[in-house]
Automatic annotation (TrEMBL):
This is Metallo-beta-lactamase domain-containing protein. It comes from the Bacteria. Residues 1-24 form the signal peptide. Keywords: Signal. The keyword Signal applies. It comes from Arsenicibacter rosenii. InterPro entries: Competence_DNA_uptake, RibonucZ/Hydroxyglut_hydro. Gene3D superfamilies: Ribonuclease Z/Hydroxyacylglutathione hydrolase-like. The keyword Heme does not apply.
Length: 418
């Protein structure tokens, strides 16, 4: 595995970068090159305010997983959050995400995003109307997903609650969900429920015939339903909730949509905010990572569950997935937690090298991590996984998130797919 550091515009550097799928400006500074047919690009977009993963599938089908915008007021202490909006606060996260996507969107794609998957209804994944400064003509507030749609059309949305939004209890009392439903009703965007076990509910829609034998997305879990590993069968890992006390009801994170994307020998896991490390006294079924681990299989790249928060990344999941590359979508000082970081590099869980990329690392987080911080890859920013045609190998590119230049800070790879 090679790593390319970007220090100058010398000819030799330019040649190396072209070989690694990037281009150079006339000044010699390296910039990200457009997607090409047959490649799979997975962009972890960093706005500093929540999750947004934009995927360009081999035939040009586009998929956005989440478009978050956290409440600027921390609900825990009612104080303003200190983490800045990236690249700056002249726009809100939804607009920044839309602008990023427009820069990397396939040239032939003029009709917007083919799919938007909302893993669960938390502000850092869908946006919140609280303290939002603007409203749409339909009256709903613009934040995250609802703001992004003002700048970029969305052809179809999948979420965990459509059409009734009643699991595990009514969600229509939550301001985030109320605002989102109002948005759906006004914009009349086709929507459907993400269904565990389904193969290719998210499918190639442009030139499927060229790649359908190599590419697939398997829905692993949602709302306590987990794929069994056979056909599209599922089992429900939550108990009958009748009589379950309010403080032990499934929380929003536990209900997250979970998926594996496969392209040839390459596999990518995204688990939303599912949890697997429980506090003392919590019922065992609150651990969603372990039943998911039983059917997930090994992958090349994992988007860290719950941003690497302390309740995520248990040993069962890591032993099953055995990723070569981890991507941490961080926006808080707890991302990743010290115990989680230790597990990521623990060779007793699974052997072999692993590289951990973090979109941003707060000084407080770095101090808390101690020696583990030095094991993280030093560059932060937008993290892009670029998979070669056929899924044989892939690279990790770190892009500058301080502006919209798409300047490449570092290139890692190629890694060989499993």
């Amino acid at each position: 595995m090679k790593r390319v550091r970007l220090f100058s515009g010398k000819t030799i550097l330019f040649v190396m970068l072209i070989c690694h799928g990037v281009a150079a400006q006339q000044t010699g500074s390296p910039i990200f090159s457009p997607w090409k047919a047959g490649y799979l690009d997975i962009h972890q977009i960093n706005t500093g305010r929540g999750n947004a993963t934009f995927c360009i599938l081999p035939d040009g089908t586009t998929l956005l997983i989440d478009a978050g915008a956290i409440d600027p007021i921390n609900w825990r202490d009612n104080k303003p959050r200190n983490n800045p909006i990236l690249p700056n606060d002249s726009r809100q996260p939804g607009e920044w995400i839309a602008r990023y996507i427009r820069r990397v969107m396939p040239v032939k794609q003029t009709s917007g995003i083919d799919y938007l998957l909302i893993t669960h209804f938390h502000d850092d994944h869908v946006g919140t109307p609280k303290h939002a400064s603007r409203a749409a003509a339909g009256g709903y507030k613009l934040s995250g997903v609802t703001e992004l749609a003002e700048f970029l059309p969305i052809r179809r949305i999948l979420d965990r609650g459509w059409p009734d939004y009643t699991f595990p209890q009514t969600l229509r009392q939550d301001s985030i969900v109320i605002n989102y439903i109002h948005f759906l009703e006004n914009r009349k965007i086709p929507a459907e429920r993400f269904v565990a076990g389904r193969l290719n509910q998210i499918r190639l829609v442009h030139e499927a015939g060229k790649y359908q034998s190599q590419f697939s997305i398997r829905n692993l879990a949602v709302n306590g339903d987990v794929w069994t590993g056979k056909d599209e069968d599922t089992r429900h890992v939550f108990p009958d909730l009748t009589g379950v006390s309010a403080n032990q009801q499934p929380n929003e994170n536990m209900c997250s949509a979970v998926m594996v994307m496969r392209y040839g020998n390459f596999d990518y896991f995204a688990g939303g905010d599912i949890q697997g490390v429980l506090p003392y006294g919590a019922p065992a079924w609150h651990d969603v990572e372990t039943p998911v681990a039983a059917v997930a299989g090994p992958v090349d790249v994992q988007l860290l569950d719950h941003h690497g928060y302390a309740d995520s990344q248990n040993g069962a999941l890591m032993k099953a997935l055995r990723p070569r590359v981890f991507v941490v979508p961080a926006w808080a000082v707890s991302h990743p937690g010290p115990a989680v970081a230790e597990r990521l590099f623990d060779a007793s869980i699974y052997p072999g090298e692993r590289d951990v990329f973090v979109t941003q690392l707060f000084p407080e987080a770095e101090a808390a991590l101690g020696p583990a911080a030095a094991k993280l890859k030093p560059e932060t920013g937008h993290i892009v996984i670029r998979v070669q045609p056929g899924g044989t190998s892939y690279q990790v590119l770190v892009l500058d998130d301080a502006d919209e230049s798409m300047r490449i800070k570092a290139v890692y790879g190629p890694y060989q797919s499993r």
